[in-house]
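Below is a filled-in request sheet from our internal design queue. Each sheet records the structural input a requester submitted and the sequence that came back. We keep these sheets so that new team members can see what a complete request looks like end to end.

REQUESTER: design group, bay 2
PRIORITY: normal
MODE: inverse folding
CHAIN LENGTH: 570
BACKBONE (tokenized):
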């Protein structure tokens, strides 16, 4: 099998490569060692091994690779070893040695399956160990065994023998040999036949395990940029890095599906979805149903919420969840969730399962979640979630009501960015909901004004200005003058933050002119304070002083210590 030619440069993985290089150095001096490289599909095992192999070759080690292939239950016995022997037999330095060992004939020859795998297994294993020992006296060797998770039973047995009793143990002393074997950690479900072998092997002194973790964001960004000869926009890189979560293959697929024009891949590209859904499709139907439901909930779902929505008997739900966890599609707990939550192991798996839902199914499941959430205690905390599910199931009145509740909750817990988000969602929904279905006591001007205050608190000053301008456009002539004045002084305040001083002064004057100073009111004090500030910024000290004195008196009369303090400062 040809090794893939990599065009893009190799990135990162310094510590891992250093460890492999060290093993290679020691192997060259006669200390035979093996490394089991574990990592999720696409995380970069093959690429890193190719890089290590390049270094090995440069240092004079002969590298031979054997691949295991996914052949279902009809695995070809000894496939990766057959491949390795074939390569060695074709190399003139090794050909004579290979030819002199009957084991090679048995594995490579045309002796049929009887000759391959019959009673002579112990001899075959011993023969293979002896052959390798002799070959390493010709030249230092690195054997790369790729994708052990697909290894056939015979290959697993041979590997067990070679590492535990053959080449690495006892008699292996002095052999110039390294074995690097890769496997997909996420493919190993609980009953996977490779598991017991790995557990056995890592206990051997000459065997170590190297876990290839997801790549850090900075390296992922470099990897994405290195894929193209033309510059990739920062926003595209950021989005891909975020979605790929350290997986090099996912990043490449996402970038490949990103058109230069659109700038982002909207959904999971179909080629990637096919890959992501393989393990999902191997699940029994009930487990698939549970995962589909969980996908609608989001990356993470509480056990109780899932149970109430999926409506399966407890034992069936438990066994479905156990299957999904066993297949490494879900993890229990998750990043920040407690023990009673489940998370998708990778966000893209969730996206792929979600994208695979039928349209009616999607709406039905969102509706089911919205209902369950509405029927639970502590509705304020889950209002944001309910708003999302209601919107996705086209229940716009409930989406509006829930968005407003979510905004209230965010305001109470001092989360202005979230408050802004929910208020904007509510404003979006407003006109789509018939007046009689809207919650009572709200109007768009006040909501827009609230949104602008949230934006200002969240530090989004320009957004705050746009929102107050929108409120100003909405406040009709028939509206009460107090509200109209509030809109104007709020706009003035926001404009001062964006250094638009002249406009600020105009609006604060208008605000002040709209409400009488008598009877004394809070709104008037606020308008006055804003105007004092605008006047000062404009260098109109006379106006500032006059209005400040007047406002101070009213603030004292009304007992408004905050406003009083503000005025005294200015
Ligand atoms: N460190 C890296 N630098 C540059 N490219 C990388 C790096 N790691 C991985 N890639 C690229 O990402 C893609 C996936 O990597 P690779 O094939 O090595 O993954 P894998 O872990 O072997 O996956 P599988 O389990 O499917 O075999 C490849 O195109 C590879 O070239
Ligand atoms: Mg690979």
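RETURNED SEQUENCE:
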């Amino acid at each position: 099998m040809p090794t893939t030619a990599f065009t893009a440069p190799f990135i990162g993985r310094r510590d891992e490569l250093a460890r492999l290089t060290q093993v290679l150095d020691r192997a060259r001096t006669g200390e035979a060692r093996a490394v089991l490289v574990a990592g999720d599909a696409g995380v970069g095992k093959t690429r890193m091994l190719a890089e290590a192999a390049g270094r090995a070759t440069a240092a004079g080690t002969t590298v031979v690779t054997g691949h295991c292939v996914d052949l279902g239950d009809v695995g070809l016995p000894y496939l990766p070893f057959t491949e390795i022997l074939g390569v060695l037999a074709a190399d003139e330095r090794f050909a004579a040695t290979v030819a002199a060992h009957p084991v090679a004939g048995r594995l490579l020859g045309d002796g049929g399956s009887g000759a391959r795998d019959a009673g002579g297994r112990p001899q075959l294993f011993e023969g293979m160990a002896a052959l390798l020992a002799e070959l390493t006296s010709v030249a230092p060797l690195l054997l790369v065994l790729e994708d052990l998770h697909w290894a056939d039973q015979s290959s697993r047995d041979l590997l067990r023998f070679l590492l535990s009793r053959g080449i690495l143990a006892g008699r292996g002393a002095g052999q110039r040999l390294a074995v690097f074997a890769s496997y997909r950690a996420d493919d190993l479900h609980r009953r996977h036949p490779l598991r017991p072998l790995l557990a056995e092997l890592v206990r051997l002194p000459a065997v170590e395990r190297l876990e290839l973790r997801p790549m850090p964001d900075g390296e992922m960004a470099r990897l994405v940029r290195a894929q193209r000869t033309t510059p990739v926009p920062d926003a595209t890189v950021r989005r891909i890095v975020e979605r790929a979560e350290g997986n090099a293959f996912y990043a490449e697929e996402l970038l490949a599906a990103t058109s230069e024009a659109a700038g982002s891949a909207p959904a999971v590209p179909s080629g990637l979805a096919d890959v992501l859904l393989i393990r999902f499709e191997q699940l029994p139907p009930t487990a698939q149903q549970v995962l589909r439901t969980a996908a609608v909930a989001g990356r993470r779902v509480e056990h109780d919420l899932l149970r109430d929505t999926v409506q399966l008997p407890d034992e069936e739900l438990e066994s479905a969840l156990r299957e999904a966890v066993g297949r490494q599609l879900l993890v229990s707990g998750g990043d920040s969730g407690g023990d009673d939550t489940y998370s998708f192991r990778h966000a893209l798996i969730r996206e792929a399962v979600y994208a695979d839902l039928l349209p009616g199914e999607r709406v039905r499941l969102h509706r089911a979640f919205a209902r369950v959430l509405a029927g639970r205690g502590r509705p304020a905390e889950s209002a944001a979630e309910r708003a999302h599910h209601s919107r996705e199931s086209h229940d716009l009145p409930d989406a509006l009501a829930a968005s407003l509740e979510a905004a209230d909750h965010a305001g109470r817990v001092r989360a202005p960015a979230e408050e802004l988000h929910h208020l904007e969602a509510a404003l979006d929904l407003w006109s789509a909901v018939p007046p009689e279905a809207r919650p009572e006591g709200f109007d768009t001007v006040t909501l827009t004004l609230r949104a602008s205050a949230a934006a200002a608190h969240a530090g989004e000053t320009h957004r705050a200005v746009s929102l107050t301008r929108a409120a100003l456009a909405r406040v009709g002539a028939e509206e009460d003058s107090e509200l109209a004045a509030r809109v104007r002084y709020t706009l003035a305040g926001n404009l001062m933050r964006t250094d638009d001083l002249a406009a600020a002064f105009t609006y604060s004057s208008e605000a002040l002119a709209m409400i009488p100073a008598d009877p004394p009111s809070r709104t008037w004090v606020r308008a006055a304070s804003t105007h004092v500030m605008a006047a000062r910024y404009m260098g109109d000290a006379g106006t500032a002083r006059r209005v400040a004195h007047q406002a101070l008196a009213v603030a004292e009369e009304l007992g408004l210590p905050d406003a009083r303090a503000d005025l005294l400062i200015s």
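SHEET NOTES:
- The chain has four domains: 14-211, 217-266, 274-357, 480-570.
- The pocket of magnesium ion (ligand 2) is lined by residues 45-46, 146 (CB under 6 Å).
FILED BY: M.R.
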